[in-house]
Amino acid sequence: MFSDSTVFKLSKLFRLQWEPAQESHVLLYPEGMVKLNGSAGEILSRLDGVKPISEVVNEIEKKFNAADIRKDVFSFVEIALKQGWICEDEEGR
């Protein structure tokens, strides 16, 4: 489990980019590509190895004028961790 102060970054095997043809963010990796929905793209694009996850939640809440999305962001981060898309950044603290 992780806390509000945990810092994440993309795993080295993946590259996140905006794909105009797909009109979405995608995760590229040697074997293929994962097309992300809008929420996933917003979250992953902010996991920079510097900001704690609490700051990511705050940025998204401000951008979309939303409230109480912490649980949803944390749930997605858990999935992304299990998929190996992201990792905890020990140096980012």
Give the % helix. 25-40%
- Coarse shape: globular
Radius of gyration: 13 Å
Number of helices: 3
Number of strands: 6
Element string (H = helix, E = strand): EEEEHEHHE
The N- to C-terminal Cα distance equals: 16 Å
User: Biggest sheet, in brief?
Assistant: 3 strands, antiparallel
Instruction: Flag low-confidence runs.
Output: none
Order of strands, main sheet, comes to 5-1-6
Structural classification: alpha+beta
Strand content: 25-35%
Mean pLDDT: 94
Keywords for this entry:
6 strands, three-stranded antiparallel β-sheet, 3 helices, 93 residues
Characterize this entry briefly:
The protein has 93 residues and is α+β, with helices and mostly antiparallel strands.
Describe the protein's architecture and organization.
With 93 residues, the protein is of the alpha+beta class. It has a domain at 7-11 and 38-87. 34% of the residues lie in helices and 29% in strands. The chain is built from three helices and six strands; from the N terminus they run E-E-E-E-H-E-H-H-E. The protein has helices at residues 38-44, 53-63, 70-83; strands at 7-10, 15-19, 24-29, 32-35, 48-52, 86-88. Strands 5-1-6 form a three-stranded antiparallel sheet. A hairpin with a 4-residue loop joins strand 2 and strand 3. The protein is globular and about 35 Å long. The two termini are 16 Å apart.
